[in-house]
Amino acid sequence: FDRQIFAVDERARVSEYELRLQVRFEVRDAQGGELLPTDQVELTRNFAFDELAAIGASQEEALIREELTRDAARQILLRVARGLQPAG
């Protein structure tokens, strides 16, 4: 995961972050032969940050990380399923 400042308020305090998850994957057979070429999934999500409610913000960030991980896994599985379908 990569977390970047996305926005600041009028006092130059962080008001929003962007979380990014980037996953590279490849599919190989038992002998190491390539079944699908290397591919990548990249997901981003922004969330508001309030330093006065930092505990809530960290819980929200943890939830977003879980959601991004789940979404990335879903996308990878769909791409693999599509890529391994027989032609025709």
Please explain how this structure is put together.
Helix content is 34%, strand content 42%. A 3-stranded antiparallel β-sheet has the order 1-2-3, with helices on one face. It has one helix at 54-83, and strands spanning 2-8, 14-28, 34-48. The longest helix is centred in the last third of the chain and has 30 residues, at 54-83. With 88 residues, the chain is an alpha+beta fold. The mean pLDDT is 93. The protein is elongated and about 60 Å long. The protein has a single domain, classed as Lipoprotein like domain (Double Stranded RNA Binding Domain, 2-Layer Sandwich).
CATH homologous superfamily descriptor: Lipoprotein like domain
CATH class reads: Alpha Beta
The major β-sheet equals:
3 strands, antiparallel
Largest sheet, spatial ordering of strands: 1-2-3
| Helix-residue proportion | 25-40%
| Radius of gyration (Å) | 18 Å
How many H/I helices?
A: 1
Distance between the termini: 38 Å
Instruction: Supply the helix-strand structural class.
Output: alpha+beta
**Regions with pLDDT < 50 over 5+ consecutive residues?**
none
Series of H and E elements: EEEH
Which term fits the overall shape? elongated
Number of domains: 1
Strand content: 35-45%
**Could you name the CATH topology?**
Double Stranded RNA Binding Domain
CATH arch. level architecture: 2-Layer Sandwich
Mean pLDDT: 93
